[in-house]
Design brief:
The protein is of the alpha/beta class. It is built from seven helices and eight strands. Helices cover 35% and strands 17% of the residues.
């Protein structure tokens, strides 16, 4: 079972590592659902922790429909994160029609290569996340999908998560999120059959 902790400071990352986190998702502004962290923070966390550090690439809050200028900025941020030690990249792009933006995702996944890419919870905004998953299976470099099964919590989305795991097969990892905590992660594992879990409190409260 893999436990990924979402953090926004070096102190939180260090505490998560001490508590047994297997992987870190490093962001800034979690009050805005996560933005790209600063180069200084990425460098410090990647340089001092010996577990994988996946870096959020999201230049602004709000919707996930990106302009060409924002895509260029995201490519620059990916290049920056790669150059200073990121283990993986986290991103999510949608079309104005609320589908996975496969073309832009393919472009950014290529920019991230050889780092693996996690497509984040933007997928939960789709009417059916399984449809988005089918698109993402065909994009080289996409390794994981972070999801609560299209519901506010993993418990509520458990049935859809199981469907997504079946559809993903051995091509993608379904990383389960949505109010997953140290206290309920074993229950969520039983409900979903997943092997990887993500949460702010996945190894307990960090503050």
């Amino acid at each position: 079972m893999i436990l990924e902790t979402c953090v926004e400071t070096y102190e939180e990352a260090l505490e998560a590592w001490r508590r047994g986190a297997d992987r870190i998702e490093l962001c800034s502004r979690l009050d805005l659902d996560g933005l790209t962290p600063s180069p200084e923070l990425i460098r410090k966390v990647c340089g001092e922790l010996n577990i994988p550090i996946n870096v959020m690439i999201r230049p602004r809050a709000g919707h996930f429909v990106c302009s060409p200028e924002e895509l260029d900025l995201m490519k620059s941020e990916i290049s920056m994160a790669k150059s200073i030690g990121a283990s993986g990249i986290v991103l999510g792009l949608l079309t104005p029609e609320n589908q996975v933006d496969a073309d832009s995702t393919k472009l950014l996944a290529a920019a991230a290569f050889p780092l693996p890419v996690t497509f984040h919870k933007a997928i939960d905004l789709l009417s059916d996340p399984v449809i988005g998953l089918r698109q993402l299976k065909n994009i080289p470099g996409i390794a994981r999908i972070l999801t609560s099964g299209g519901k506010p919590t993993a418990r509520e989305g458990a049935e859809k998560i199981r469907e997504m795991i079946k559809e993903a097969g051995d091509q993608l990892i379904i990383l389960v999120a949505g109010k997953v905590t140290k206290e309920n992660v074993l229950e969520i594992k039983m409900l979903t059959g997943a092997e990887e879990f993500h949460g702010r409190k996945i190894v307990g409260s960090l503050t």
